[in-house]
Amino acid sequence: SCAIFEPGDDDLEAASRRKFDRVCDRLRLTAEDHLLEIGTGWGGLALHAAERYGCRITTTTISREQCDYSRARVAAAGLSDRVTVLDQNYRDLTGTYSKLASVEMIEAVDWRLYDEFFRCCERLLAPDGLAVLQAIVIEDRSWSAARWREDFIRRYIFPGGFLPSVRSLVDAANRASGLRLVELDDIGANYPITLRHWREALDVHRDRALALGFDEQFLRMWRFYFAYCEAGFLERRISDVHLTFAGRAWRRMPARREPSAEVSAAPLAAVAGRGPV
Fold first, then answer.
1. Which of 59, 135, 171, 217 allows an S-S link to 40, with CB 3.0 to 4.6 Å?
2. DSSP label at residue 257
3. Conformational region of residue 78, where left means phi above 0, alpha means psi within -120 to 50, and beta covers everything else
4. 52-63, pLDDT tens digit by residue?
5. Domains in the chain with CATH codes
6. 254 neighbors 130 (Cβ within 8 angstroms)
7. pTM over 0.85
Protein backbone atom coordinates (compact mmCIF):
# COMPACT_ATOMS: atom_id res chain seq x y z
CA SER A 1 0.00 0.00 0.00
CA CYS A 2 1.00 3.63 -0.45
CA ALA A 3 3.87 4.78 1.76
CA ILE A 4 4.37 8.38 2.92
CA PHE A 5 7.64 10.09 2.05
CA GLU A 6 9.22 13.23 3.47
CA PRO A 7 11.20 15.69 1.32
CA GLY A 8 14.73 14.37 0.88
CA ASP A 9 13.87 10.95 2.33
CA ASP A 10 13.49 8.25 -0.34
CA ASP A 11 13.67 5.23 1.98
CA LEU A 12 10.68 2.93 1.39
CA GLU A 13 10.85 1.19 4.77
CA ALA A 14 10.86 4.48 6.67
CA ALA A 15 8.04 5.78 4.47
CA SER A 16 5.99 2.65 5.17
CA ARG A 17 6.41 3.13 8.92
CA ARG A 18 5.38 6.75 8.48
CA LYS A 19 2.19 5.54 6.77
CA PHE A 20 1.43 3.24 9.71
CA ASP A 21 2.00 6.12 12.13
CA ARG A 22 -0.33 8.33 10.11
CA VAL A 23 -3.10 5.74 10.33
CA CYS A 24 -2.54 5.30 14.07
CA ASP A 25 -2.45 9.08 14.56
CA ARG A 26 -5.78 9.48 12.78
CA LEU A 27 -7.20 6.78 15.08
CA ARG A 28 -5.85 8.58 18.20
CA LEU A 29 -4.52 5.13 19.10
CA THR A 30 -3.51 4.46 22.73
CA ALA A 31 -2.41 1.46 24.77
CA GLU A 32 -5.98 1.09 26.08
CA ASP A 33 -7.44 0.51 22.62
CA HIS A 34 -8.46 -2.73 20.96
CA LEU A 35 -7.93 -2.18 17.24
CA LEU A 36 -9.72 -4.22 14.60
CA GLU A 37 -7.94 -4.38 11.25
CA ILE A 38 -9.97 -5.52 8.24
CA GLY A 39 -7.46 -6.88 5.74
CA THR A 40 -4.24 -8.06 7.39
CA GLY A 41 -1.97 -7.78 4.38
CA TRP A 42 1.41 -9.10 5.50
CA GLY A 43 0.95 -7.98 9.13
CA GLY A 44 2.80 -4.68 8.98
CA LEU A 45 0.21 -2.39 10.55
CA ALA A 46 -0.73 -4.86 13.29
CA LEU A 47 2.90 -5.35 14.34
CA HIS A 48 3.63 -1.62 14.20
CA ALA A 49 0.59 -0.72 16.30
CA ALA A 50 1.40 -3.35 18.93
CA GLU A 51 5.09 -2.46 19.16
CA ARG A 52 4.77 1.32 19.09
CA TYR A 53 1.42 1.97 20.78
CA GLY A 54 1.06 -1.08 23.03
CA CYS A 55 -2.57 -1.73 22.14
CA ARG A 56 -4.34 -5.00 21.38
CA ILE A 57 -5.02 -5.82 17.73
CA THR A 58 -7.34 -8.29 16.08
CA THR A 59 -6.65 -8.49 12.37
CA THR A 60 -8.49 -10.59 9.81
CA THR A 61 -7.84 -11.80 6.27
CA ILE A 62 -9.35 -14.31 3.86
CA SER A 63 -5.91 -15.11 2.41
CA ARG A 64 -4.45 -18.31 3.86
CA GLU A 65 -0.94 -17.29 2.80
CA GLN A 66 -1.19 -13.87 4.43
CA CYS A 67 -2.68 -15.38 7.58
CA ASP A 68 0.10 -17.95 7.99
CA TYR A 69 2.83 -15.42 7.18
CA SER A 70 1.45 -12.81 9.57
CA ARG A 71 1.01 -15.31 12.40
CA ALA A 72 4.65 -16.33 11.98
CA ARG A 73 5.75 -12.67 12.08
CA VAL A 74 3.70 -12.04 15.22
CA ALA A 75 5.16 -15.10 16.95
CA ALA A 76 8.71 -14.17 15.93
CA ALA A 77 8.20 -10.67 17.35
CA GLY A 78 6.93 -12.08 20.65
CA LEU A 79 3.61 -10.26 20.29
CA SER A 80 1.15 -13.17 20.35
CA ASP A 81 -0.30 -11.81 23.59
CA ARG A 82 -1.31 -8.58 21.84
CA VAL A 83 -1.96 -9.51 18.20
CA THR A 84 -4.56 -12.04 17.05
CA VAL A 85 -4.61 -12.97 13.35
CA LEU A 86 -7.88 -14.45 12.11
CA ASP A 87 -8.66 -16.15 8.80
CA GLN A 88 -12.25 -14.94 8.63
CA ASN A 89 -14.38 -12.78 6.40
CA TYR A 90 -15.01 -9.45 8.09
CA ARG A 91 -18.77 -10.02 7.71
CA ASP A 92 -18.54 -12.97 10.11
CA LEU A 93 -16.71 -11.13 12.90
CA THR A 94 -18.29 -10.48 16.27
CA GLY A 95 -17.40 -8.29 19.22
CA THR A 96 -16.86 -4.58 19.80
CA TYR A 97 -13.64 -2.69 19.12
CA SER A 98 -12.64 0.82 20.13
CA LYS A 99 -10.85 1.51 16.84
CA LEU A 100 -11.00 0.08 13.30
CA ALA A 101 -8.58 0.31 10.37
CA SER A 102 -8.61 -1.01 6.83
CA VAL A 103 -5.70 -0.27 4.49
CA GLU A 104 -6.42 -0.60 0.77
CA MET A 105 -8.82 -3.51 1.23
CA ILE A 106 -11.98 -1.69 0.12
CA GLU A 107 -10.78 -1.98 -3.50
CA ALA A 108 -11.60 -5.71 -3.27
CA VAL A 109 -15.20 -4.99 -2.19
CA ASP A 110 -17.82 -4.84 -4.95
CA TRP A 111 -19.48 -1.43 -5.12
CA ARG A 112 -22.86 -3.08 -4.54
CA LEU A 113 -21.61 -4.16 -1.09
CA TYR A 114 -20.42 -0.77 0.18
CA ASP A 115 -23.55 -0.35 2.30
CA GLU A 116 -23.04 -3.77 3.87
CA PHE A 117 -19.37 -2.96 4.50
CA PHE A 118 -20.21 0.18 6.47
CA ARG A 119 -23.01 -1.56 8.37
CA CYS A 120 -20.47 -4.20 9.44
CA CYS A 121 -17.98 -1.51 10.46
CA GLU A 122 -20.58 0.26 12.59
CA ARG A 123 -21.66 -3.02 14.20
CA LEU A 124 -18.08 -3.85 15.18
CA LEU A 125 -17.03 -0.35 16.26
CA ALA A 126 -17.78 1.13 19.68
CA PRO A 127 -20.31 3.99 19.44
CA ASP A 128 -17.59 6.50 20.37
CA GLY A 129 -14.93 4.81 18.22
CA LEU A 130 -12.99 5.89 15.15
CA ALA A 131 -12.39 4.06 11.89
CA VAL A 132 -9.72 4.87 9.29
CA LEU A 133 -9.91 3.62 5.71
CA GLN A 134 -6.95 3.99 3.38
CA ALA A 135 -8.35 3.72 -0.13
CA ILE A 136 -7.23 4.13 -3.71
CA VAL A 137 -9.94 6.28 -5.26
CA ILE A 138 -11.04 7.20 -8.75
CA GLU A 139 -12.41 10.59 -9.77
CA ASP A 140 -16.00 11.07 -8.66
CA ARG A 141 -17.04 12.02 -12.19
CA SER A 142 -15.59 8.75 -13.57
CA TRP A 143 -16.98 6.37 -10.96
CA SER A 144 -20.41 5.59 -12.42
CA ALA A 145 -19.08 4.67 -15.86
CA ALA A 146 -16.10 2.75 -14.44
CA ARG A 147 -18.42 0.35 -12.61
CA TRP A 148 -19.29 -1.35 -15.89
CA ARG A 149 -15.94 -1.12 -17.65
CA GLU A 150 -13.29 -3.86 -17.70
CA ASP A 151 -9.85 -2.26 -17.79
CA PHE A 152 -6.35 -3.73 -17.81
CA ILE A 153 -6.13 -4.06 -14.03
CA ARG A 154 -9.53 -5.72 -13.59
CA ARG A 155 -8.81 -8.17 -16.40
CA TYR A 156 -5.20 -9.15 -15.70
CA ILE A 157 -4.19 -8.09 -12.16
CA PHE A 158 -7.16 -7.92 -9.78
CA PRO A 159 -10.22 -9.69 -11.22
CA GLY A 160 -13.23 -8.55 -9.24
CA GLY A 161 -11.43 -5.47 -7.94
CA PHE A 162 -12.91 -2.00 -8.23
CA LEU A 163 -11.82 1.50 -7.21
CA PRO A 164 -14.29 3.52 -5.16
CA SER A 165 -14.56 7.29 -5.29
CA VAL A 166 -14.54 9.50 -2.22
CA ARG A 167 -18.19 10.38 -2.74
CA SER A 168 -19.27 6.75 -3.22
CA LEU A 169 -17.75 5.79 0.14
CA VAL A 170 -19.05 8.80 2.05
CA ASP A 171 -22.52 8.37 0.55
CA ALA A 172 -22.56 4.68 1.49
CA ALA A 173 -21.50 5.44 5.06
CA ASN A 174 -24.18 8.11 5.37
CA ARG A 175 -26.83 5.91 3.80
CA ALA A 176 -26.15 2.64 5.62
CA SER A 177 -24.70 3.60 9.00
CA GLY A 178 -24.29 6.26 11.64
CA LEU A 179 -20.59 6.62 10.82
CA ARG A 180 -19.69 10.14 9.74
CA LEU A 181 -16.60 11.49 7.99
CA VAL A 182 -14.56 13.72 10.32
CA GLU A 183 -11.20 13.88 8.49
CA LEU A 184 -9.94 13.37 4.97
CA ASP A 185 -6.27 13.33 3.93
CA ASP A 186 -5.04 12.95 0.36
CA ILE A 187 -1.71 11.07 0.29
CA GLY A 188 -1.83 10.20 -3.41
CA ALA A 189 1.25 12.23 -4.34
CA ASN A 190 3.28 9.57 -2.52
CA TYR A 191 2.08 6.69 -4.68
CA PRO A 192 4.23 7.35 -7.78
CA ILE A 193 7.32 7.15 -5.55
CA THR A 194 6.03 3.97 -3.90
CA LEU A 195 5.34 2.39 -7.29
CA ARG A 196 8.78 3.33 -8.58
CA HIS A 197 10.31 1.49 -5.60
CA TRP A 198 8.20 -1.58 -6.36
CA ARG A 199 9.12 -1.54 -10.05
CA GLU A 200 12.82 -1.21 -9.24
CA ALA A 201 12.59 -4.05 -6.71
CA LEU A 202 10.96 -6.26 -9.34
CA ASP A 203 13.84 -5.51 -11.71
CA VAL A 204 16.47 -6.20 -9.04
CA HIS A 205 14.88 -9.52 -8.09
CA ARG A 206 13.98 -10.58 -11.64
CA ASP A 207 16.11 -13.75 -11.56
CA ARG A 208 14.63 -14.76 -8.23
CA ALA A 209 11.10 -14.35 -9.62
CA LEU A 210 11.97 -16.47 -12.65
CA ALA A 211 13.40 -19.15 -10.36
CA LEU A 212 10.07 -19.25 -8.52
CA GLY A 213 8.37 -20.22 -11.78
CA PHE A 214 7.12 -16.87 -13.08
CA ASP A 215 7.81 -16.26 -16.76
CA GLU A 216 8.91 -13.21 -18.73
CA GLN A 217 5.36 -12.39 -19.77
CA PHE A 218 4.30 -12.26 -16.12
CA LEU A 219 7.18 -9.94 -15.22
CA ARG A 220 6.48 -7.65 -18.17
CA MET A 221 2.80 -7.51 -17.22
CA TRP A 222 3.56 -6.48 -13.64
CA ARG A 223 6.18 -3.98 -14.73
CA PHE A 224 3.58 -2.43 -17.03
CA TYR A 225 1.05 -2.49 -14.19
CA PHE A 226 3.36 -0.49 -11.92
CA ALA A 227 4.05 2.05 -14.69
CA TYR A 228 0.35 2.21 -15.63
CA CYS A 229 -0.63 3.02 -12.04
CA GLU A 230 2.22 5.50 -11.64
CA ALA A 231 0.90 7.45 -14.63
CA GLY A 232 -2.61 7.42 -13.19
CA PHE A 233 -1.44 8.96 -9.93
CA LEU A 234 0.81 11.50 -11.63
CA GLU A 235 -2.11 12.64 -13.81
CA ARG A 236 -4.44 12.70 -10.76
CA ARG A 237 -6.95 10.38 -12.41
CA ILE A 238 -6.64 8.28 -9.26
CA SER A 239 -5.43 9.10 -5.77
CA ASP A 240 -5.02 7.59 -2.31
CA VAL A 241 -6.82 8.91 0.75
CA HIS A 242 -7.22 8.42 4.47
CA LEU A 243 -10.88 8.68 5.44
CA THR A 244 -11.55 8.95 9.18
CA PHE A 245 -15.08 8.05 10.26
CA ALA A 246 -16.50 8.54 13.76
CA GLY A 247 -19.22 6.59 15.53
CA ARG A 248 -22.49 8.16 16.60
CA ALA A 249 -21.29 8.94 20.14
CA TRP A 250 -17.88 10.41 19.20
CA ARG A 251 -17.61 14.02 20.42
CA ARG A 252 -13.87 14.72 20.70
CA MET A 253 -11.99 17.41 18.81
CA PRO A 254 -9.69 16.32 15.96
CA ALA A 255 -6.03 15.78 16.80
CA ARG A 256 -3.55 18.52 15.93
CA ARG A 257 -2.11 17.94 12.48
CA GLU A 258 1.54 17.85 11.58
CA PRO A 259 2.41 20.20 8.67
CA SER A 260 2.79 17.33 6.18
CA ALA A 261 -0.73 16.06 6.81
CA GLU A 262 -2.75 18.99 5.52
CA VAL A 263 -6.00 17.98 3.88
CA SER A 264 -6.00 18.34 0.12
CA ALA A 265 -8.61 20.74 -1.22
CA ALA A 266 -9.37 18.51 -4.20
CA PRO A 267 -11.08 15.57 -2.42
CA LEU A 268 -12.83 17.92 -0.01
CA ALA A 269 -14.25 19.78 -2.99
CA ALA A 270 -15.44 16.48 -4.38
CA VAL A 271 -17.25 15.58 -1.15
CA ALA A 272 -18.88 19.01 -1.20
CA GLY A 273 -19.95 18.45 -4.79
CA ARG A 274 -17.68 21.14 -6.22
CA GLY A 275 -15.49 18.98 -8.40
CA PRO A 276 -13.66 15.70 -8.94
CA VAL A 277 -10.94 14.14 -6.81
1. 59
2. P
3. left
4. 999 999 999 999
5. 12-248 (3.40.50.150)
6. no
7. yes
